[in-house]
Automatic annotation (TrEMBL):
SMART domains: HTH_MARR (SM00347). This is HTH marR-type domain-containing protein. Residues 3-139 form the HTH marR-type domain. GO terms for molecular function: DNA binding; DNA-binding transcription factor activity. InterPro entries: ArsR-like_HTH, HTH_MarR-typ, Tscrpt_reg_MarR-type_CS, WH-like_DNA-bd_sf, WH_DNA-bd_sf. The keyword Transcription applies. Keywords: DNA-binding, Transcription, Transcription regulation. Transmembrane segments: none annotated. It comes from the Bacteria. The lineage of its organism: Bacteria, Bacillati, Bacillota, Bacilli, Bacillales.
């Protein structure tokens, strides 16, 4: 198989896997997990904050890939629930930063037993290799996606 055909096959398989994974997570794994904190968008915010404990509201909105007004509503709801807090950046007082509160961390920890069973088919070595490959692909595409987001 030539490289062009291999690239096409990988892309098609990845897209198929992504579609199947989306359905699988939506139907089974997300029930009761952190992503369903009343709202998938709210869960996504908590997940982002778990990965990036202190993030600007602007960057959070960019990662959510939604309108700033919609993201602001979700942020307000989480803040009202006491799961996140906003504060002014020490470097630039105009920038609002967002972080998890202790209660937000508790919610994440309570749901921290989320184990993706679909990865059980891989050995630990395969998981490590797969993760490195995904990180490499993400780092390659992130700047391109950022260009699209900055146009809006």
């Amino acid at each position: 198989m030539d490289e062009k055909q291999l690239n096409t096959d990988i892309t098609m398989n990845f897209m198929k896997y992504n579609d199947l994974l989306t359905v699988f997570l939506k139907e089974s794994m997300l029930k009761g997990s952190v992503f369903t904190v009343q709202n998938r968008g709210q869960g996504k915010i908590l997940s982002i904050l778990h990965q990036t404990p202190h993030i600007s509201q602007k960057e959070l909105v960019a990662q959510l890939d939604m309108r700033p007004q919609s993201a602001s509503e979700l942020i307000k709801k989480l803040e009202k629930k006491g799961l996140i807090e906003r504060y002014k950046s020490e470097e630039d007082q105009r920038v609002m930063m967002i972080t998890l509160t202790k209660a937000g961390k508790v919610v994440l920890n309570q749901n921290g037993d989320f184990q993706p069973v679909f990865l059980n088919v891989l050995t630990i070595e395969e998981k490590q290799q797969f993760n490195r490959i995904l990180e490499k692909l993400v780092s390659e595409i992130e700047p391109e996606v950022a260009k699209f987001r900055n146009k809006h």
